[in-house]
Specification:
The chain is α/β, with parallel strands linked by helices and 446 residues long. The chain contains 16 helices and 17 strands. The longest helix has 35 residues. Pyridoxal-5'-phosphate binds next to helix 5.
């Protein structure tokens, strides 16, 4: 067998190439270069995503399953979007379905699973999660389902695994947990959570929305039952996507209209999809593959794996090639992002009036993504975000729907947290600009 591409990677990301792909990064604000540290709320998109959406409208715009050219092209494009997502997550394309966003897909699944649950059955959720992985399960309380909430360790915002073990009982039917926290960046030990859920006979539902731009996902290796993510967080359009094990997608009954097919994967997709955005999704995933291929070619002098080459290969080979290229991309992304995160966190914790939430010990950085949350004394997160925004630095303030967490940390009533989210197109200059601005704000006092 050939050596997987990911093991051959040893060069840093070609950041000039990366940034040249994203036209929006060239913006300025009040004379300052725009610094996009708002990735956790949605990332920027490469030019090819914009082109793919436009091309769809120009060449394929139609509804599905018609006996004419544009409809056939739409069908083919949707099939290619499923294949691309299947390569990203490592599953079969009929285990992928799309929707407007993760929240809508999760409510729909929770409703479908809820049909099978009895009063007294239990679901476990966590304090660390976005409310989109809490509220859909809490909605089942109307049917008598008991929802148990797993706590965190407050000092570093990691999941309390002892508490999790105690909250999985013989009545537990599903454990819903995030892969990574969108508020403080903790990576949860999802493989262990899935193992514990299965040992109790429960299903494991993973919210990978925040993890997807930062690390590779392998649903087969994880053995999760369901996994959701949102392409607009990983350089694609505003969409949601769900993986489900085939056996579950066949067994549970979605709410659907009668004429719609009961075949997989369509039975889980209600109504007409946003075809143009699915076209953009294919381009986003091919961007990731090309990032892997480009950087590999860059490091070895081998140019056979250039942009665009993956999509032209025969089906099986292309699938393996794209998956391997995606893994290579994530390898480079992870290295670059965590180099920036280390620089940023070191600078942040040295600011005297700043309180840092989450993992700050470099020895534990394997357990975080480069999303951080802070507060400055005597400044609300909104004031800090506004100050930064005027300097062209885009951050986020509030709870970003991680409401359980901001309540648990006692910051909800005073404006939540200031979230700074690095992704792979950010630079060390941008991190330094952020640190300078925060130092300036902190030095101003009240
Ligand atoms: C971790 C996490 N889960 C779920 C969601 C909800 O995703 P969507 O906007 O696709 O419904 C978000 C959005 O910010 C998120 O960060």
């Amino acid at each position: 067998m050939s050596t997987p591409i990911v093991q051959q990677w040893h060069k840093p990301l070609d950041l000039d190439w990366v940034r040249s792909q994203f036209p929006s990064l060239r913006q300025t604000v009040n004379g300052h270069p725009a610094t996009f540290l708002d990735g956790p709320a949605g990332t920027q998109v490469p030019q090819r995503v914009i082109d793919a959406v436009r091309d769809y409208y120009e060449q394929s715009n139609a509804n599905t399953c018609g006996a004419f050219a544009t409809s056939r092209r739409s069908d083919a494009m949707i099939a290619s979007a499923r294949t691309a997502m299947a390569d990203l997550l490592n599953c079969s394309s009929d285990e992928i379905h799309f929707g407007p966003n993760m929240t809508t897909l999760t409510f729909a699944l929770a409703h479908a699973i809820g049909r099978e649950l009895q009063p007294g059955d239990e679901v476990a959720v966590t304090t660390l999660d976005h409310d989109a992985n809490v509220a859909p399960w809490r909605a089942l309380e109307e049917r008598g389902v008991v929802v148990r909430q797993v706590d965190i360790h407050e000092e570093d915002c990691t999941l309390d695994m002892e508490d999790l073990r105690s909250k999985i009982t013989p009545r537990t039917r599903l454990v819903a947990v995030g892969y990574a926290s969108n508020a403080v960046g903790t990576i949860n030990p999802v493989a262990e959570v899935i193992r514990l859920a299965h040992a109790a006979g429960a299903l494991a539902f993973i919210d990978a929305v925040h993890y997807a731009p930062h690390g590779p996902i392998d649903v087969r290796e994880l053995d999760c039952d369901f996994l959701v993510c949102s392409p607009y967080k990983f350089f694609g359009p505003h969409l949601g996507c769900m993986y489900g094990k085939r056996e579950h997608l066949l067994r549970f009954r979605p709410y659907k209209v009668r004429p719609a097919t009961d075949a997989l994967p369509d039975r889980w997709e209600t109504g007409t999809q946003t075809h143009e955005l699915l076209a953009g999704l294919v381009a986003a995933i091919d961007y990731l593959a090309d990032l892997g291929g480009h950087s590999l070619a860059n490091s070895s002098g081998d140019t056979t794996f250039r942009a665009g080459s993956v999509v032209d290969q025969r089906a099986v080979e292309a699938k393996i090639a794209r998956r391997e290229a995606i893994l290579a991309a994530y390898h480079g992304i992870r290295h670059h992002e965590m180099t920036l995160a280390a620089r940023m966190i070191k600078g942040l914790v040295e600011i005297p009036s700043l309180r840092f939430f989450g993992i700050s010990d470099p020895a534990c950085f394997a357990d975080r993504v480069p999303t951080v949350a802070v507060r400055l004394a005597n400044r609300t997160p909104l004031e800090a975000a506004t100050f930064l925004g005027e300097r062209g630095i885009f951050t986020w303030d509030g709870n970003y729907y991680a409401l359980n967490l901001t309540e648990r940390l006692g910051v909800e009533k005073s404006g939540g947290l200031l979230r700074i989210g690095v992704v792979h197109y950010n630079t060390s200059d941008e991190v330094d600009r952020l640190l300078d601005a925060l130092r300036e704000l902190a030095a101003r006092g009240t």
